[in-house]
Amino acid sequence: MKIISRIEALAKWGSAIGALLDDMATSPNNDQNALAAAIQKAYLKNNWFTVNNSIKALGEVCNMLNKIILDVWINNYHDDLSDNPDVKKVGIIMAGNIPAVGFHDLLCVLVSGHKAVIRTSSDDAFLIPFLVEVLLNIAPDFENQIEFTQRISDIDAVIATGSNNSARYFDYYFAKYPSIVRRNRNSVAVLSGHETANDFRALGNDIFDYFGLGCRNVAKLYVPHGYVFDPFFAVIEERASLMEHNKYMNNYDYHRALFLLDGIPFLTNNFLILRENEPIATPVSVVHYEFYDDINTLEEQLKIKSDEIQCRVGLNGLPFGSSQQPGLMDYADGVDVLQWLTGLGF
C-alpha cells in the first residue's frame, strides 16, 4: 500500500472505532456492539481494565487516528517513509498494564509499511486483536502486515516493553536483532505551591487514570519545602469512588498496614497514601513526595534521574491533567519509533 493509502485507511479505522464507542454511549444495553463485548471480555480477564478505563484508552486511540493529526505526524518523516519499503518483520512484545497500551507501536509499524508480528500480554489479550479485526474489515490489504503469535521468532527487529527484569531477558534473547527495549519508568509532578483546585483536580487524572498503572501516571510529587497537602487532599476526595474497586483497595490496605507495622510515617485520606521518599517508582495507591528549596537545584536532580522519568507535569512541564493524553510524537522513553523503523531497510 502506498503511504497515502495507508493513512486514509488508518483514518477510516479511527472513525469506525469512534462509531462503536458512540454506539456504546448512546445504547449501553446494545448486545450487538462487538466493541462492548470485547471490553467486557477484557474486564473479566483483568479487573484493572474497567469499562470506563477501556473506553478512555480507546478514545485516545481515536484521537491518534484523526486524519489531520495523522497527516501532521507523517509530515515529520516526509523524506523517510516509502511507498515501497524493503519490508521487515518487526516483533512487538506488548505490555498489559493499561488497555491497548501497545497500540502506538502497532500504528508505527503499519505506517512504516513493515509487518507487525505481535505478542499481546495475557493481561490485554482482547482489545488489540479486536481493533485489528476492525481494521481488516475496512482495509483487507493490511492483512499481510499483521500477525499474532505466542512466540516471537523469525523476525528482523523487535520492540519489547516490560519491566526491568524482563528487559534483561529481552536484551539477551534478542541481542542479534535491531531492537527497542523499554524498562520501568514513572512520571513526576513539580508543584509550585500556588496550585488551584482545578490544578489539583487535573493532577488527580495524572495520578489516578488507569489506577496509576501506566508509566505516564504521576508517581511522585516534588513540592516546596514546608508544603501543606490539605488543599490537595480536599480536592482529591472527589476520587473516593476508587474505594469501590477491590484490587485497588487491596493494594491500599496492604501498604497502609505495612507502613504502620514498620513505623513509616505517611499521609492518607483512606484511599491514597502520600509518603516522603526519594525513589520515583511506587506501588498502586502510593505516591511519593519530596521537598525542594531551589527549583534550579531540582532541575539538575531531575536531569540525573531522566532515565527513570517518562514525563513531567506541573511547573516547567506538561499541563496538569495531560500525562495520559499522549500525542503521536510522544514516544515512550523518548525513542522515535517511526524514525527507527524507517531506518530498518528501504
How is this structure best described in words?
This protein has 346 residues and is α/β, with parallel strands linked by helices. The chain has 2 domains: 3-183, Aldehyde Dehydrogenase, Chain A, domain 1; 186-314, Aldehyde Dehydrogenase, Chain A, domain 2 (3-Layer(aba) Sandwich), CATH 3.40.309.10. The chain is 41% helix and 15% strand. The chain has 12 helices and 11 strands. Strands 8-9-10-7-6-11 form a 6-stranded mixed beta sheet, with helices on both faces. It has a 5-stranded parallel beta sheet with strand order 3-2-1-4-5, sandwiched between helices. Helix 1 runs antiparallel to helix 3 (51-64) and helix 1 (3-26) packs across helix 6 (127-138). The model has no long low-confidence stretch (mean pLDDT 96).
Short synopsis of the structure:
The protein has 346 residues and is α/β, with parallel strands linked by helices.
Q: Topology, please?
A:
Layout: H1 3-26, H2 34-45, H3 51-64, H4 67-75, E1 89-93, H5 103-112, E2 115-119, H6 127-138, E3 146-148, E4 157-161, H7 164-173, E5 179-182, E6 186-190, H8 197-208, E7 218-224, H9 230-236, H10 246-262, E8 267-268, E9 273-276, E10 286-292, H11 295-304, E11 309-314, H12 337-342
